[in-house]
Amino acid sequence: MSPKSLGVSPQLYDYLLNTSLRENPVLQQLRQETAQLPAARMQIAPEQGQFMALLVQLLGARKTLEIGTFTGYSALVVALALPPEGTVVTCDIDETTTAIARRYWQQAGVADKIQLHLAPALDTLEQLLESGQEESFDFAFIDADKRNYPHYYEKSLQLVRSGGLIAIDNVLWSGRVADETVTDKRTEAIRAFNRQLHHDDRITLSLVPIADGLTLALKC
Asked: Is 178 helix (H, G, I), strand (E, B) or coil?
């Protein structure tokens, strides 16, 4: 047995999916359609979606926040995990990809649970704060432009309740964060953000090596 996290070979990954993944057929259809898009790499992995749904259920979440909607897979997987009165507030600026999202939310019967804000996310987050929604969210998922991660995180920390959870995607950045020869702006931004969270005593922290790396920050 290894004392470190395993690298996942294609064979082991198939085994993981075959013995663990329980994907709603609508989620599967959405993932397959998204795979045909030029920006398909932005789609979260299905096992990550299932993991996030489990976290939401463990929290007993009723109100969740998402920064970065894309084609709506993560919003849908969370909405399906919420109780009937649950709400997902999600932020994006792309009308084309979110039109795909709306179609699948409707098909899955959860469109009434999801509030899509088509505007720059920082503007939406500020409006939520100004409308008195500070510390009212149970869970937040950040998966948008990487250089704004620190700003999205700070706003989310204000919006999430004590004991609530913030999940941040792509924090391992295909392994580039550990390669000192890679110095592009997005990689450096994620490195700096990871260092920031490592020293943030407002949260309990765990970086989980699932998919492209998922940081879990539990607000103290």
From this structure: helix
Contact 213, 173 (CB under 8 A): yes
What is the SS3 assignment for 210?
A: coil
Read off the amino acid at residue 135.
E
CB atoms within 10 A of CB 32: 9
∠ CA 172-160-49, rounded to 5°: 45
Tens of pLDDT along 87-124? 999 999 999 999 999 999 999 999 999 999 999 999 99
Strands (E), 57-170: 63-67, 87-92, 114-118, 137-142, 160-169
Over range 63-68, report the average pLDDT: 98
Residue reference for tokens 């991660």: 149
Whole-number Å distance between alpha carbons of 87 and 106: 15
Task: Judge if pTM exceeds 0.85.
Answer: yes
Q: Are 89 and 113 in contact (CB under 8 A)?
A: no
One-letter amino acid at 103 equals R
- E strands present in the chain: 63-67, 87-92, 114-118, 137-142, 160-169, 203-208, 214-219
> What percent of the chain is predicted at pLDDT more than 90?
96
